[in-house]
Protein 1
Amino acid sequence: MDLNTVEQLIPATGREAVDAFEPGDAWLAGGSALFAWPDPKLRRLVDITALGWRALTATDAGLDIAATCTIAELADYGTHPPPAEWPALAIVRGCCEALRGSFKVWNVGTVGGNICASLPAGPMTSLAAGLGAECLIWQPGGGERRAAVADVVIGDCVNALAPGELLRSIHVPADVLRGRAAIRQGSLTPMGRSASLLIARVPPADLAGEAPAFTLVITAAVARAVTLEFAEVPTPAELDAAIEARLVLGDYFADPHGTPRWRRHLVRLHARELLEELTGA
Ligand SMILES: Cc1cc2nc3c(=O)[nH]c(=O)nc-3n(C[C@H](O)[C@H](O)[C@H](O)COP(=O)(O)OP(=O)(O)OC[C@H]3O[C@@H](n4cnc5c(N)ncnc54)[C@H](O)[C@@H]3O)c2cc1C
């Protein structure tokens, strides 16, 4: 894609880049989405990979994933091997592989770029929603705010970031990482874009009774992540009923990657599989 309205490429040097953001600017991360469609409003690209943020930071509180962490860096972290005390990280690799990109996209595409591109089939949005992550957002004027990813990615290629706001990182809580999680992804073709991507999780034994016994997060089949929490492990019939109560046919996403009716079928099927895998129900 020739972006022939762009006049300047500016390496971001620090927090002040947020205050210097102007109409006609765009944050540039890996560029794999930004360079894929025309935007005649663009005048300047502000390269946030120049900020040199550490990709992944593990603390007692959980895992902080920098917005500029690449899909490749995240996939490696979840694979070699996932820290034993954080079994939920086992789903990271599957989420990364749900991004049906090339070697180049795998190596330049970022977690933040994926969330901010806000495609329904954005697997980093799925991962963040599935693990109950919180986004840290830098705001013009020196402020910052935190928001659940379902309140950031709010529609098909629509997000709730105000002009100039910069996604800094996502934080995955340790209490979720200490539990178990599983993933199911469905596409029309083996290498097709996700028509449905479900993540389910159960809490660690020491949080039984405090945290929901079973959590299901539905993404890709819908334009905005839907989370269903169950105080007790549901029966398959109760799970079906909860999905039906939350989503009518018109809530399912429609595009060349799947009809609403088929996506609804995938969601029900995969939800039951996840319930069985994680709870034996
Ligand atoms: C062959 C191919 C297959 C693909 N498959 C998929 C797929 O299956 N699913 C999918 O979701 N995408 C897919 N993509 C699109 C894209 O590659 C990914 O979404 C990728 O993760 C985007 O990351 P990036 O770092 O390249 O983002 P960029 O292109 O740099 O940025 C994307 C958008 O987000 C903004 N942005 C970037 N970082 C931030 C930040 N930290 N704060 C605020 N705004 C920011 C940019 O200004 C831009 O508007 C595909 C692309 C290609 C070329």
Protein 2
Amino acid sequence: MTRLICPFCGPRHLREFEFHKTVAAEGGSAFARVYERVDSAELSIEHWQHVGGCRGWLLVRRNPSTGAVTDCQLVGGGEPA
Ligand SMILES: [Zn+2]
């Protein structure tokens, strides 16, 4: 993974982004979203911030084993204005 596609800025180098945390998949209980560890070899859902660009918060889905990014969208699922 050397690039992320920011919904505002387009494809940008990974060095412009800062990892924040791994988050639980949607649909679990409130307890699971807050307290359970998220540790899967096939899917990691993460919050990243585009600190070298628009400073937007992104929800990135990727395979931590291969580094392949399957989805990158704004936190909350909104579209860029
Ligand atoms: Zn951006």
